[in-house]
C-alpha cells in the first residue's frame, strides 16, 4: 500500500475531543480560522497525492480503518485546507459532501497522533 496523505496532530482544539463521543472527528491544517479552531484536530499539512475513495484505508497511529464512503468535496477540502470530518459509522453513502466515512471504533487522538490515508 502507498501513503497518499500523512499528517501529525500538532494541536487539539478545546472541544475537539467531544466529537469523539459522537464517533467522529474534524481536522484542519495549521492557520485554521479562529471560529473553527476549538473544534478541530489541527495538523501539519501534507500534499494529497490523489483523490480519496471508498476502499482506501485511514490509518491512525498504526491502526487501520477501511474507508466506506467519501463525500464529493472531501478530497478537495483535504487537499486545500486539510479539513475533513471523519465519521466512524460504516456508511456507504456520504452524509455530507465533506465527510469521509470509515468502519471501526473511533480512536483516541491527541497531539502527535499520526493520521494517514493509504491506497493499494
UniProtKB/TrEMBL annotation:
InterPro entries hit by this protein:
PTS_IIA_glucitol/sorbitol-sp (IPR004716), PTS_IIA_glucitol/sorbitol_sf (IPR036665)
Q: Which domain of life is it from?
A: Bacteria
Q: Name one GO biological process term.
A: phosphoenolpyruvate-dependent sugar phosphotransferase system
Task: Quote one Gene Ontology molecular function term.
Answer: kinase activity
Pfam families reported in the protein's UniProt record: PTSIIA_gutA (PF03829)
Gene3D superfamilies (UniProt xref) = Phosphotransferase system, glucitol/sorbitol-specific IIA component
Q: Which GO terms describe its cellular component?
A: cytoplasm
Modification Phosphohistidine, positions: 43
Instruction: Name the NCBIfam families for this protein.
Output: PRK10377.1
**Name of the molecule in the record:** PTS system glucitol/sorbitol-specific transporter subunit IIA
Q: Per the UniProt entry, what species is this protein from, by scientific name?
A: Phocoenobacter uteri
